[in-house]
Amino acid sequence: VQLQASGGGLVQAGGSLRLSCAASGRTFSGYAMGWFRQAPGKEREFVAVINWNGGITDYADSVKGRFSISRDNAKNTAYLQMNSLKPEDTAVYYCAARRRSEVAYNQRVYDYWGQGTQVTVSS
């Protein structure tokens, strides 16, 4: 599976962005998908996760109520809708897929990673 993340950019605080993660290669629909982010000087951290059919989602406390993860298996694409963005959301955002259908929070259990897309939120 190859993952291509896109949709990042520069936005003012309070604004919105939607990230996309397009998958190619093997079957996408059976895989759980996650979004992670890495801010300058910090370790990569969990942001959001969705199970194989979209029936289960979960979020880091820092983004709960502001971000929404979804997927369209017919399009082999996962999304991260980010609203009410804050300067502390500034980071490189990565999508990841794991060869299991259940959600997971530990990035070490993810098998495939996208290249990352930069999100910068100005104050």
Total E-strand runs: 11
Largest sheet at a glance? 7 strands, mixed
The helix fraction, in percent, is under 10%
- Contiguous low-pLDDT stretches (5 residues minimum) are none
| Oligomeric organization of the protein chains | single chain
Shape: globular
Q: Calculate the terminal CA-CA distance, rounded to whole Å.
A: 37 Å
Put simply, the count of helices is 0
User: From the alpha-carbon coordinates, what is the Rg to the nearest angstrom?
Assistant: 13 Å
Q: Supply the helix-strand structural class.
A: mainly beta
What features would you describe in this structure?
This protein has strands at 2-6, 9-12, 17-24, 32-38, 45-50, 57-59, 67-72, 77-82, 91-98, 112-113, 117-122. By secondary structure, the chain is an all-beta fold. The N and C termini lie far apart (37 Å).
A few lines on this structure:
The chain has no helices and 11 strands.
Spell out the key features of this protein.
globular, four-stranded antiparallel sheet, mainly beta, 11 strands, seven-stranded mixed sheet, 123 residues
Set down the secondary structure blueprint.
Elements: E1 2-6, E2 9-12, E3 17-24, E4 32-38, E5 45-50, E6 57-59, E7 67-72, E8 77-82, E9 91-98, E10 112-113, E11 117-122
Parallel strand pairs: 2-11
Antiparallel strand pairs: 1-3, 3-8, 4-5, 4-9, 5-6, 7-8, 9-10, 9-11
